[in-house]
Design brief:
Blueprint (H helix, E strand, L loop, with lengths): L2 H8 L3 H8 L7 H14 L23 E7 L9 H16 L3 E7 L7 H4 L5 E6 L8 H9 L4 E4 L10 E5 L1 H14 L4 E6 L5 H17 L4 E5 L13 E4 L2 H10 L5 E5 L2 H13 L8 E6 L3 H4 L7 E4 L2 H17 L7 E4 L2 E3 L6
Parallel strand pairs: 1-2, 1-3, 3-4, 4-5, 5-12, 6-7, 6-9, 7-8, 9-10, 10-11
Antiparallel strand pairs: 11-13
């Protein structure tokens, strides 16, 4: 019996199971009860924690022994989203391994650094930047924070921002995986669906999927929620813009091109697409094949049949962000790095 099997039985991530077993904060009461029930049902006994090997000494001078997680453009509740909670789980693992403490801050106004940074209550910060913040403001926001402490950006879109380290999923790889999966199923009529086409990381996933499909000779249709033609400017020529997901799924249902292979940009959007497909008479696995993204077990568990989803390596992103921050504290003048975590296709239970 392993923690992976407990996570599958509870319909959550392994990071969530670990947080529950270690009595760590940030887990909803109903989720805790869900995990405890799975542990009891499977008679799971956590393995004893091995004595960690002594880490090589770092030339790091910690003033406080604290590391911060700071949200920009959202409050802390944003981190309760399953995929971000997994990243936080990886951060907690890295901070614990480094024998440091973790604090939380928020910057709903991107121009005003958190008091945690201004008052030097932490030695460095791992930041989560909302996609609602305009790209033109990214560099100024990070520079204002770096006047106080070293900063590492976690998640988001792969882009060069001067002076900041960035640990991110490989969103180009995500698009390639989605295309390859749908083509292996024999899908010739391909589509990309998103409720958030203006988010930079979603745009990159869609563009990558579109490029792979075009190169393969199967030009996709890009289904985007929006209210004006400009929404589709970055998504090629075959674009359908609708005011809602319902309108987009209705458009797909009216199409004579079936079965359709759809890459839905996030599990959150997929959870809304499923009931709309049923509403318009489309059967998943027959009329429509779906691949989703983020591998959020809490959302996927409620979908039948469960779709394949691309695991972006959220917990690994958090863990690597901590290691990168420690390196930045140790070598404050080194060049900034972009570190990408390789995505993996996660198949639904009972499939190869």
């Amino acid at each position: 019996m392993s923690i992976v099997e407990v996570a599958k039985a509870a319909g959550v991530s392994t990071a969530t199971v670990s947080r529950v077993l270690n009595n760590l904060p940030g887990v909803r009461p109903e989720t805790i009860a869900q995990v405890r029930a799975a542990v009891s049902e499977l008679s799971y006994t956590p393995q004893r924690t091995r004595t960690p090997k002594k880490r090589p000494a770092r030339n790091v001078k910690f003033g406080t022994g604290n590391i911060a997680i700071v949200t920009i453009g959202h409050d802390r509740s944003w981190l309760e989203i399953p995929v971000l909670a997994s990243v936080v789980g990886g951060v907690m693992r890295g901070v614990t391994a480094a024998e440091l403490s973790l604090m939380f801050g928020e910057m709903q106004d991107p121009t005003k650094p958190s008091p945690l940074l201004i008052n030097r209550q932490v030695d460095g910060a791992i930041v989560f930047l909302s996609s609602e913040v305009p790209i033109a403001e990214y560099e100024a926001t990070f520079k204002a924070m770096q006047r106080h402490v070293p900063v590492v950006w976690a998640m988001g879109m792969e882009m060069a921002v001067s002076g900041v380290d960035h640990v991110t999923p490989d969103n180009v790889g995500v698009g390639h995986l989605a295309y390859t999966y749908l083509r292996k199923l024999g899908c010739e009529h391909l589509g990309f669906v998103t409720a958030n086409p203006h988010w930079p990381l979603i745009r990159l996933r869609g563009q990558s999927f579109m490029n792979c499909a075009l190169d393969g000779g199967f030009p996709p249709t890009m289904y985007l929620v929006g209210n004006n033609d400009q929404v589709g400017d970055a998504y090629g020529r075959r674009v359908v813009v609708g005011e809602s997901l319902d309108a987009l799924i209705e458009n797909i249902a009216r199409s004579k091109a079936q079965p359709v292979g759809l890459f839905v940009a996030t599990d959150h959007t997929t959870s809304h697409v499923y009931p709309l497909l049923a509403k318009h008479g489309l059967l998943v696995g027959k009329d429509v094949h779906i691949v989703s993204c983020d591998n959020e077990m809490a959302r996927l568990a409620g979908m039948h049949p469960r779709p394949a989803s691309i695991d972006i390596g959220a917990e690994e992103i958090g863990y690597r962000a901590v290691n990168r921050l420690l390196n930045r504290i140790e070598r404050p003048n080194g060049p900034p790095l972009i570190i990408q975590v390789t995505p993996r296709l996660q198949m639904p239970p009972g499939t190869d």
